[in-house]
Amino acid sequence: MNDQIVLDSFGLVCLFHKEPGWEKIQKVLYELSSSGQKALLSIINWGEFYYIIKKHVGKWKAEEALGLLSQLPIKILSADDDLVKEAAEIKSDYPISYADAFCIATAKRSKGKIFTNDPEFKSVQHLVSVIWLDDTINLS
Asked: How many folded domains does the chain comprise?
């Protein structure tokens, strides 16, 4: 796999809960693992993933999910000053969440493709490449 893959919390929740499109994330992660490459995940989106799991199924399951996440071919990226500024600029210009702005800034920096089903990403498809997890969802 040659393209850099960037994940957001939506895609990870989709994978962990086996929601529509989870097979696409599983396949990509398997291919990355086989090739020795890793997907990218902003530390902000890592935190968002944790809080979503904790909120819905509790702290124990959230901790377990983080343990499983650490076994996947995913590199968690810190948020440096430039990334924070880029995310803030993206957030100020587009109707997206602040956490999604970090995913987008990470994808822009790495020239990566975002795997998600989050409809908020429709507004930034001209900035970054978005791969929709569930092809049956009409996002146009």
From this structure: 1
In a domain, 87, yes or no: yes
Predicted confidence (pLDDT) at residue 136 exceeds the cutoff of 80? no
Q: Give the domain range for residue 58.
A: 9-132
Q: Is residue 26 part of a domain?
A: yes
Q: State the Cα–Cα distance between residues 117 and 8, nearest whole angstrom.
A: 10
CA distances from 36 to 30, 84, 90, 101 (A): 10, 28, 31, 27
The contacts of residue 78 (CB under 8 Å, 6+ apart) are 43
**CA distances for 74 relative to 29, 79, 87, 92, 135, angstroms:** 8, 16, 20, 28, 24
1 found inside a domain: no
Helix (H, G, I), strand (E, B) or coil at 117: coil
pLDDT, greater one: 35 or 3: 35
Does the structure show a pLDDT above 60 at 139? no
CATH number at residue 48: 3.40.50.1010
Reported pTM = 0.91
Given a cut of 60, whether residue 140 has pLDDT beyond it is: no
pLDDT single digits (tens) 86-112: 999 999 999 999 999 999 999 999 999
